[in-house]
Amino acid sequence: MGRCPPYMPSYGCEHLNRDILNTIKSIRESRSNWLEDLVHYTCLDCEETGSFITLNKHHEATKHGFAVNAKHLYCMRCRDLVYDPSTFKSRKRKQLQLSEEDETYISTNTVPKPCGREGVRGLFNLGETCYMNAVLQMMVHNNLLAQYFLGMGHPVHTCPISREPEKKNDSDDSEDELAEDKEQKTCVACAMTEVFSDANTVDQPVPAHAVNLLFASWKHIPIMSGKGQQDAQEWFTIIIDKLHESAVNPSQNPAFKPNHKKHCLCFFHKVFYGRFSSDVACDVCHKTTTTESEYSSIDLDFQKQKKRKKKLMKEAAAASAPPPVSSANAANRRAAAAAVQQLPPPVPTLSECLKAYTSPEALFQESQQIDCQTCKRKTTAQKCTRVRKLPAILTMHVKRFGMKKPPGATTGSNGLVSSLIGTPEKYEGKLDFPLVLDMHPYTTHAQPNGSYRDRQHCIYDLECVVVHQGDHAHTGHYYAFCRVAVGEGKEMKWFKFDDEIVSATTTEEVLRQEAYLLFYGLRDIPSVCGPSVNGETNGKHANGTTNGDVKMEES
């Protein structure tokens, strides 16, 4: 049996056009003694001749598109042999005419392989690393992060962590060299740059991998090292903190200018971190104390909202039923109560969770009372937390994991539950989330004394949804839905990234998911990144659209 060709021909190619077909015909007619083989091809645009490997390198250097021999046509952009019936007419050595039945068989049994879509690639699961893959898919498809890592935002060639082993290991021992290679990849930012470079390589038929990033995160996050499932939200929070450290470390990033203010101005703080403003007002003297805190994600207690909505449903049913003055009315009330039980479970919304998060809270329990400096004693108070600063990428964390209180557990005088160990549990259920999120009502700028001049600076678009399947955080499986710009027109489409498997999906399917993490991108990006490495100002949204140079304000 003859040996199979290294590439199976795809049916058709989007790069073929009439001018190329005419060029193929003229070249074949001018070379009557051309050998028919499956090894050597000649570029249509120049005299370069060689194998597939040679031609692929030739394409990278010249961007020439096609190579041809007497029998086949090779697309260097698709990196595949291309079958097209019209190319048979230009062959010097004619073959038998294909019948209509043959044409149908070929067209239905060959692989319709389009050119690789830039950035749309799966990630190999390296052994229960789906938690990392799901978060990485969000990151590699964000334009701000891609500009940073692919634009030399992190100095990989001069990073002291990567270069350090070269100074301390001059041994020729192969085992030492192997250990050195592993040590050279322990910088989180260097490893992340490698992931971006690998994931954005076009026309790759195989998934990318994040081996070095996994090793680097194991070294810098010991509590999450080793084989085993981890919490995706916890890994995300720690990894962006490690990236922040790489940006503010002068030895790693000499281009970073030290911050003389109380808040960090590094790239990752502007992209991922925001600030809360909490006002605590004493109920006795009414003095208000304001404090600020940093956040990388907003925690949404959707389970609490589910219970609240269920309670409201029961109260509404009870209010609508007549008082039990007769046995008939009592039966009606029982029927109304039964009807409530038959209703579908209440579905809280993202806006309801945010409203609850930023609404005033009464601190009246003994454990909640404050030490008022004016009253000189413990007093009850009112607390209100609102968003003071918004990041470019806003992360919503739907709190789905907790500990189930064991039977017989009691609360002591110190407010702590007795030492009985609870079991981890997951809060199932749908949270309705929008494609477009307006954060203005939840900010300090929404108050009468706020100073936001433009409400549109609070508009976010949904870019990624991370879903968890399983019983609790350290078991089960994570996958992600990401909105990606594809094609020449950069049309935004949704894809499902399940480790190495990538599939197109719909907006409706995304909105049906029981989300664990929601990533929203600021629609109108101000100078969030500050000056880039080349001195220009980055003003692009994650989908590639540009905006004016608008300053990010605070109240």
From TrEMBL:
One of its GO terms (biological process) is proteolysis. InterPro entries: Papain-like_cys_pep_sf, Peptidase_C19_UCH, Ub_carboxyl-term_hydrolase, USP, USP_CS, Znf_RING/FYVE/PHD. It comes from the Eukaryota. Gene3D superfamilies: Cysteine proteinases, Zinc/RING finger domain, C3HC4 (zinc finger). Its main location: nucleus. It holds the Pfam family UCH. The keyword Ion transport does not apply. Keywords: Hydrolase, Nucleus, Protease, Thiol protease, Transcription, Transcription regulation, Ubl conjugation pathway. Residues 121-523 form the USP domain. GO terms for molecular function: cysteine-type deubiquitinase activity. It is found in: Nucleus. It catalyses: Thiol-dependent hydrolysis of ester, thioester, amide, peptide and isopeptide bonds formed by the C-terminal Gly of ubiquitin (a 76-residue protein attached to proteins as an intracellular targeting signal). The keyword Cell membrane does not apply. Residues 533-555 are annotated as: Disordered. Its EC number is 3.4.19.12. This is ubiquitinyl hydrolase 1. It comes from Lithohypha guttulata.
